[in-house]
Amino acid sequence: MSIITDLSKIEIILQKLDHSSVSHQKAILIGSRAARRYLPHFRDVYDQPHADWDLILSANLLLQWLKQQQINIQTTTMIIPLLNELDLSVNCTLNNKQIFDFLIPRSSTSYSTFLLEHITEWSYEISSYIGCHCCIPIAIAHSRLLLILKRYMLYYQHQWNKTANDYRQLLEIKQNECQLNVDLEQIFIKLFINNNEILHGKRPADIDQFSFSVDVFSHDIRMKLNEQSTLTRNDFFTLLLKDEQILFVYQLAVASSSSDNDILIGLEKICTKYPLWLADFTIDNWLDIYNIYVFYRKYKQNILLPLTSIQVTLENQRLFQELPELVMYNILSFITDTTDFHSLKLVCKHWYTILKQDSFWKELYLFRFGSKGQFSQYSQISRWKLLYFWKLECDNLSSFDNEDEILKLIDTTMQLRKIKANSVVELWENLTKQNQFIEPLILSQIHYILLNSYYYYLNEDILESPNKYTAKLIVIGLENSRSRTQMLITLLVGDYGSSRFEMHREQISIECDSDKIQTLTFDGPRLYDYSWGTYGYVRLSGDALLSIEPNQINQYLPSGICISLLSTMVHPARRERFIQYLITTESHCSSSLCALCDDMCY
Amino acid sequence: MATNVEETYLYSSPTTFKVSSKDGEIFDIDDSFINQSKTIKNMLNVLDIADNHMPIPLQNIKGTMLNAAIVFCKYHKNDLLSIPDDEDEDDFERDAYEPRRSDDISEWDKEFIKQFTVEEGTLFDIIMAANYLDIKALLAVGCKTIANMVRGKNSDQVRQMFNISYDPPGEGLNTPRNSVTSKESGDNQLLTTQEKESRCKTPSPELMYD
C-alpha cells in the first residue's frame, strides 16, 4: 500500500520510536495467544512457531524491550503508515523462532491508544504466564475485545481467512464474555472502524437490498429467485431454505472470485462489498460454504447437499482395529455407566467420530436390547444415543412400557439438554435482579447436569385442585461427576387463601434421594422472603432462598443457582409459565404487602 | 435340549479330535471343547469326519490361544448346561431387560484372563479366538474384562491403557513439526463438521469438571 514505508534497520527503528509521543506503562496481549487463554478446547502449542505474540504497547516499552532482546533478535521490520493517525507496527523474529508483532499508537485518536488508556476494562491481569519471555508488564485482552476485533476485522480484506478461523473459535466462548461498559465498546468500535477504513477502504453501507447477475446461479436457485436480479434481506431468509442460502452464497462467491477460482477471494468480496447482513450470514456459515467448494473441487460435481454440512459417516465403526464390530458391541454392552462413555468419546478423534454417529448407537442398541425391542416403528426414533443412555439409566426406574410414553420422556430429556447453563444463570440474575458472578467450574457443572439428567416419569393432573404436575428425574453430577440423584419435582398450581384475599399460587416441592432424602418446598413469595398472612403478604426475616450460601439440596452449588436449576427441571408443560411466575412474584408481593403487618415488622 | 443330545451322539464315536493352529501346533480336543465351541461343533456336524487322525486346521488362531481356550473349556465343562443357547428367543428377551453385569467374573476366570492382560494385545487375541471358535463363556469373560478396564477411567487413562494416540497418524499433535503451517494453509483439506466441533467445542464438560 502506498501509504506505508517499511524499515528494517534497528538503529533507524530505535530512532523513529523515540519520536513517538504516547506513553503507557503496560502492554496488552491480543491475537491467538490471548485467545488461547479463553478457548477451553485449544490445545497447548507453546513452542510452535506460528503462535506469535501480538502486543499493543507504547513506544517506551518497546524501546525497553528492544534493548533487552537486542542480542536475540534475528530480523526486525517496522511499518510506518504515512498518515499520522495510524499506528506503527514492528515485527520481530527472535533467534529461537519466536515471532513478536507490536502495535504502537502514534496519536491520541488511535484505537490502540484508547485500549491502553482503558487497560483495566479491556484486559485481565496476568503474571506468571509469560514472565520468562519479556520484562514488560503485560495484561491479556478480554475475550470480548478479541471478539469485537475479529468481527470487525472480517469486514476488511486483511487476513480474512485466518481471522475467520479465529473468529469461529472465539464465538464458542462468547458466553463467558466479561461485562463491559457499552459506551466504551461503542467508542472502541468507532475508532477501530475509522482506523480500518483508512487502511483497507470504506465498508459497505448497511443496506437491505442488493443486486447481482442472476446468470451465475444454478437452475433451482434461479427458480426460487423468480429470475430476479435483486434480493432483499427478507426474501433471502424467507424464500430460500438454509441449504439454498448456503448454496446461494457459494455460487455468488464463485462468481465473484476471479479466474483462479479461489472461493476465499469471493467470500472476501461478499464480506466487504455486499450488505452487512449477508456478510454476517457468510461469516456464520463460512465453513459450510467452504465445504461445498472443497467437495466440488474433489468430485467435480455441483450438488445440493441434503444437510447443511457434510457429515462423514465412517463405514468402519471399529474402536479397536483388531476387533470386529460385533465383539466391540459385546464389550460395550457391559458398560452400564453412561458417564464412562464420556471419557471414551474423548480418547481420540477416531473414537469421537464413531461415538457421535447415531448409526453406531442404533447398532449398539439393537445388539444390546435385541431386534425384538419395544419399538414397532424404528423410523420414528431419531436419537438412538439418547435412547440407549436412557435405557441404561432409567429402564429399571421407569414404569412406562408404552413406546410413545418412552419417546415422550426422551423428547423431554432432549429439551432439558437444549437449555443452556447460561439461561440458568440468567434466571438467577432475573430472580435476584443483580449480576451474579459464577465460577467457570460451577457453570461447567450446571452444563454437565443439564446434559446428564433423564426424565423417567411425567404426569399432570389438571383435573385436581390445585393442578398437580409431577416429574421424576435421575440427575447425574449433583455431587460429583458420577453421583446419581433421584429427584421428584412436584408443582402445585392453584388458588390459595379464601374470600377476597384469594391468590394465585404455584408451589414447587423437590424431593432428592441420593444417600439421604432431602426435601425443599417453596412458592413464589417464599423465594423472596414473603409469606401469606391472614391479611396479605408478610415479610419474613428468614434465610433467603436466593442467598449465596449452599442450600440443603446440594452443598456445592450456591443456593440461588440450585433453585434456578431445579425450577427449570419442572414438568415441561408448565416450565415456562412457572418461571415467569417466579420472576414476577416479587413485584406482586411488595405491591400488595399488608400495610398493617409491615408496620409490625419495624 | 433333546436335539442337542442327538447332535452330541453324532460325533461321539471318536471322543477326541485333533486340531492344528495357525503356527502348526497340534492339539487334542475332547467333548468339553466341542460342546462349548459352536464353530467346531457345527464343523464336525457338517464335515462328518470319521478319521480322527487328520488335524482340523484352524488358520485364524495361534497355538498359545488355542491351548488357552482348551484349558478354559476343560475347566468349564461342567457348567455347560447352565449356559443358555443364544438362539433361544425367550432367553434373548429376558437378557435384554436385565442389567448387564461385568463384576461377576469368577475367581478362576479372573486368574485365567490375567495371563493375557499382562502382555499388550494378547487380550484381543484371546477374544478373537473365542469369537472365532464361538465359545460364549470365554468371549463374555474377555469382553467383561475390557469393560472393567475402561470403567471409571478418564480418557487419558484409556488412551494409555490401549496405547491409542490422540490424533490419527500425521495429523494434529502427530504432525511432523515443519509441516504445521503448510497443512493449515492447504485448502484441499475437507473440513468436516465433526472436525469443526472437535476443534471448537469441548465435547463434554469432563475437562473442566473432573
TrEMBL record, chain A:
SMART domains: FBOX (SM00256)
Entry-linked InterPro entries: F-box-like_dom_sf, F-box_dom
Domain F-box: start-end pairs: 317-364
Ranges in coiled-coil conformation: none
Superkingdom in the source lineage: Eukaryota
Name of this chain's protein: F-box domain-containing protein
Automatic annotation (TrEMBL), chain B:
Organism of origin: Didymodactylos carnosus
Gene Ontology terms describing biological process: ubiquitin-dependent protein catabolic process
Lineage, top ranks: Eukaryota, Metazoa, Spiralia, Gnathifera, Rotifera
Residue ranges occupied by any SKP1 component POZ domain in the UniProt entry: 17-78
PANTHER family in UniProt: SKP1
Renumbered residue ranges of the record's region Disordered: 166-210
UniProt-recorded name of the protein: S-phase kinase-associated protein 1
UniProt keyword annotations, A-Z: Ubl conjugation pathway
Residue ranges with Polar residues bias: 175-193
Cytoplasm keyword on record: no
SUPFAM superfamilies xrefs: POZ domain, Skp1 dimerisation domain-like
